[in-house]
Amino acid sequence: MQANSSVAKVWGAATPGSLSALIFDVDGTLADTEEAHRNAFNAAFVDVGLDWYWTETLYAGLLDVAGGKERLLHYWNILDPDESGGHKVKETINAVHAIKTEHYEAMVCGGKLGMRPGVQRLILEAHATGMPMAIATTTTPANIDALLRSSFGTDWRHLFVAVCDASTVQKKKPAPDVYLAALQALGLPGADCLAFEDSENGLRAARAAGIPTLITPSAYTSGQQFTDAMLVLPHLGDPDQPMLQHVPGADQRWVDLAALRRWHNGTLFEAA
Prior knowledge:
Blueprint: E1 21-24, H1 34-48, H2 56-62, H3 68-79, H4 87-109, H5 119-129, E2 133-136, H6 141-152, E3 162-164, H7 177-186, E4 193-197, H8 200-208, E5 213-215, E6 231-232, H9 257-264
Parallel strand pairs: 1-2, 1-4, 2-3, 4-5, 5-6
Helix pairs in contact: 1-4, 3-4, 4-6
């Protein structure tokens, strides 16, 4: 089944265990951030005098490389492999990434990015019931703060037991390290959690950590393969922005905690 179906079926039963915590990726999952990141990179290239420009098609391919600095180095290596290991290159990449982060924060704080349908509602619902939550992402702390501050306020961190990011571990997705760090902070096995991701790399990382995973593909990842996902949906839905079709296992056309518990318990539902 294609990832961009309106409502996909549950692919298989989750590993036995009660749903005790939610773990969220950030870029592409909480918000469609990648276009903002692409524009911020291009603005930074201009600022430092690089004649680079990342088109949507080029950037979609570069997203296979996790991490902004790693993405920059990868691209540099494509253009000029003989120079990519030099000290000057590292300094330039650090400068570009810092300027890019400033541009991205300005976009987010300027109200140009909002949460994807259902994300804010579900996080607040889980918090109200006392369900622990964590973040597992390869993006920088500044990017996370800018995005979540704009939606949840300056005290957004109280919503999460742990915020595991690019500074937490050395190996980035698809390595499971950031998810393993989140599980350690939660004090739970992977089988008792549910991960939210938008990409194949993110799915591979979560599943390698033993975590059942719900996928909501973004514009940049809709063509990827998610055959190991527990469920693939276009988004989480909201009462004022429901999915086009009935959500399998839910009483309405948006995702709530009750539906998540049913899916996690391993019950199979077909698309409505």
